[in-house]
Amino acid sequence: HSGTIIKKPEELREELIYNYENFGTQGYLLSDDTVNDSPAKIDMMHSVIKSLPFDIEWVAYTRPDMFHKYPEMYHKMLDMGCRGMFLGVETLTHEAGKIAGKGLHPDKIKEILNWLREVGKDEVFILASFIVGLVGETKETLMETGRWLRDQRCLNKAQYELLYISDPNDTFTNDFSSNHNKFDIKIDWHPEYHWTHRTMTLTQAKEVAVEWEKMLVDHPTTLFERHGMFNTNFWAYPRIRSLGYTHQQAVEYLTARDVPQHVYEKNADWIQDYHNQLKMHEMLHVAN
User: pTM higher than 0.85, yes or no?
Assistant: First the structure.
């Protein structure tokens, strides 16, 4: 649609080959905000990547609802090297989902999440993100989502953000921020930031987040992602792989509460080796 830029197949292939031949690059973090937003794009990517004389792997932002209508997408994604998905679930409450533009019924979303694990087995690193406090959510519906998170076994990680309502003039405004009256949202900035809408308050959202944390504290498969803990961030997957660790090891370290010391040591060695190569290159350049 207007404003979307998709690379031409020949340009994408040329770039991937250039990166491989010059830097040995085979692992990617895709900055595309929704890699599977159309079957046509997935088909193009699959055609290009499978034509390469080497394999690549990648992680990306992904829409779970698209797999409901186009399940073949997932098989093509796996075939062309998808190793991790950041799934924008946002809510498992139908009313809140419809208001936020997520129309697929939550029961279908849950089926998709389980199906992704069943098909991808342990070869895919899966994170689901949620927004706590959407219009249409209540403490009761969010606690129901919390119980599902506690009982499920399909996710490696879960992440939540508290709903943020900003001034309509804010650069990072969203639909809720731009349409306070439409959603009956009241926002206070003093004495401290706080919002209220017809089904929740920010205070209640914070209380739910604390309860979610308690419910998943010892979960056997799922760890909460921490925004501040960049060393165990989902997006660090390609970096861990570049240090020579297997897929299973990378997932293990990125779902651990603490990264093993040997990972830091390997990373330090990698950086030192890079600096040494730069010095050697400079010496050769001077000599010539």
Answer: yes
